[in-house]
Amino acid sequence: MGGSMGGTKNRTRIHVVSDVHGNTEALARAGDGADALICLGDLVLFLDYADHSRGIFPDLFGVENADHIVELRTARRFEEAREFARGLWAGRDRERLVEGAVRRQYAEMFAAFPRPTYATYGNVDIPGLWPEYAGPGLTVLDGQRAEIGGLVFGFVGGGLPSPMRTPYEVPEEEYAAKVEALGEVDVLCSHIPPEVPELCYDTVARRFERGSGALLAAIRRVRPRYALFGHVHQPLARRMRIGATECVNVGHFAATGRPWALEW
Question: Strands 36-39, 144-148: parallel, antiparallel or unpaired by DSSP?
């Protein structure tokens, strides 16, 4: 990464990524030309909906089973998908196998992060493992703030309860408390979007993902310059203005390999 953090130079540039889902190669380059990288979570690749041969699930159960579970989930037959998965996991130590696979992915991805990086969790991440891999120069924040180049950034990690039952889904009250704890910020960073239909609807999956009413309320109350998020891979609207705030889905990094840039 080039330059100093708002010291001798006039401008600060940050790159922002979300939904990395195993794209380690692009992650290693994501900070090129920036003063800092921000990561809005979802490092783990459990199952790639575009390529069913990639991820923890097909590694354990094969591509045919991955094809079938994607078909069920896409058709919103979530209970059937869970029943099918339960059958596959029968007789296996699910927790041990998943944790081992996640650890292998985390070891690669955390080593690839440029420095400095500011990161928060996505809904498919396992926060309890992060301290083992987040070394010097990587700051993990959740319900916390950091100053970068003279601006205050607030971070809220995780998702809200959903039919997918992903690893880091937070009860609404707990999530709202994290948002409230941030107070006044210039840039509001979260994994999931504020609860606005156009920002929550995935045009390929053809469904609404969970957005946060607490984030939307904070945007209206605090009026940050930006609200940055990911989670919705193919959103109906990638950006939208809410009052004084520019709301931006920073993109599906696993697919594009390109960070979103902010300079001031």
Answer: unpaired
Band (pLDDT 50/70/90 cuts) for residue 3 is: very low
Q: 219: which 2 tokens? A: 């945007």
For the chain, give the mean pLDDT.
Answer: 94
- pLDDT at position 130 over 80: yes
Task: Give me the pLDDT at residue 15, please.
Answer: 98
Tokens for 132?
A: 């083992």
Residues 6+ apart with CB under 8 A from 25: 112, 257
Strands 138-140 and 144-148: unpaired
* DSSP conformation class of 164: T
pLDDT over threshold 60, residue 35: yes
Beta strands in 94-168 (DSSP E): 117-119, 138-140, 144-148, 151-156
SS3 call for 169:
strand
Strand partners, 205: none
- Laid out side by side, the sheet with 138-140 consists of 138-140, 117-119, 36-39, 13-17, 260-263
8-state DSSP, 209: P
Question: What's the token pair of residue 191?
Answer: 């994994």
Indicate the Cα dihedral angle 28, 37, 258, 39, nearest 10°.
Answer: 100
Residue with tokens 């097909």: 58
> Which strands, in side-by-side order, build the sheet including 226-229?
144-148, 151-156, 187-190, 226-229, 245-249, 239-242
Q: Which two tokens stand for residue 175?
A: 């999530």
Q: pLDDT per residue over 137-149, tens digit each? A: 999 999 999 999 9
Cβ atoms of residues 87 and 115 within 8 Å: no
- In this structure, the number of other CB atoms found within 10 A of the CB of residue 83 comes to 11
Report residue 197 CA to chain centroid gap: 19
User: Helix %, strand %, coil % for the chain, to 5?
Assistant: 35, 20, 45
